[in-house]
Amino acid sequence: PAGELGQQALFKAATVQALFLGQYADATAKFRTFAESTPNKEFAFAAFREMGDIWYSKQENYLEAAAHYREMLKKWPDHPEAPEIAYRVGRSLFFLWRFEEAINAFESVVRRYPTSGWAERASYNIGLTQYTRGEHTSGHAKSATKTYRLAIAAYKNFLRKYPTSALAPEAWFGIAACLEDLNALDGALRIYQSLRGKYPSQNVIEIKLARIQERLAQRGR
Predict the structure, then answer these.
(1) Residues 147-202 pLDDT 10s
(2) Taking 80 as the threshold, does the pLDDT of residue 72 lie above it?
(3) Cα angle vertex 29, ends 27, 32, to 5°?
(4) How far apart are CA 90 and CA 66, in angstroms?
(5) Do residues 137 and 143 lie in contact, with contact meaning Cβ atoms separated by under 8 Å?
(6) Which is deepest, 7, 104, 147, 168, by most CB within 10 Å?
(7) Quick one: which of 200, 203, 204, 202 has its CA closest to 167?
(8) pTM of the predicted structure, to 2 decimals
(9) What is the rounded radius of gyration, in angstroms, for the C-alpha atoms of the chain?
(10) Residue 215: which of 190, 180, 173, 187 has the closest Cα?
(11) Cα→Cα distances 173→17, 31, 126, 145, 209, Å
C-alpha cells in the first residue's frame, strides 16, 4: 500500500468508483486516504479536487462542497486553480440560499484574483445573487426593493469592468428584471428591446416584452 503502484491503484480505484460506479462515499474515502499518504503535494491536490467534484457536481451536496473547498483554500491558497475553488465556494453558498455569505465569497474572488477569469464570473454572480435574494424576499416589499437596487448597482459595476464580457447580455437582462420587479416598466422595456438578437434565449425576451406591454396597457386604462 505504501509503494508507488499501490498509491496509483488507490487513486485509480477511487476514480473508477466516482466516474463509473456511483460509489461516491467509497471514492471520497479513498481519495482522502491517498491525499493524506502521498508525499506529492500536487497529487494530494488532485485527490482533493476529485473529492470536491463529487460533492459539488455529482451529488450537489453544496454544504459539504463549501466546507471542503474552504479547506482546500487553506491548504493551497496560491495554487493556480485557487480562483476557481474560491468561486465554487460562492456558488455552493448561493445554492444553499446563504446569499450574504455567497456575496462575500464572490467579492473575495474579485479582490484576491482580479486578473483571473473567475473574477469576471464572480463579479457577475454578485448581481445575480442580489437579484435572487430579492426574489426570495419579495414578500417584504421594503427589503426586496433595497435588494433589487443593490443588484442593479452590482450588475452595472460588472458591466463597467467587463463591457465586452460574454455575460454582458445576462447582466443587462438582470438589470431589466430588477426594474420590472421595481415596477419601472419603461426602463425594463427599453433594455429588453435592446437585447433582441443578443440574449441567448429569444423566446424569453419576447415573453418579457409581451408581459410588460400588457402591464403598460393595463396601467394606461
Answers:
(1) 999 999 999 999 999 999 999 999 999 999 999 999 999 999 999 999 999 999 99
(2) yes
(3) 110
(4) 8
(5) yes
(6) 147
(7) 200
(8) 0.93
(9) 22
(10) 180
(11) 41, 41, 14, 17, 12
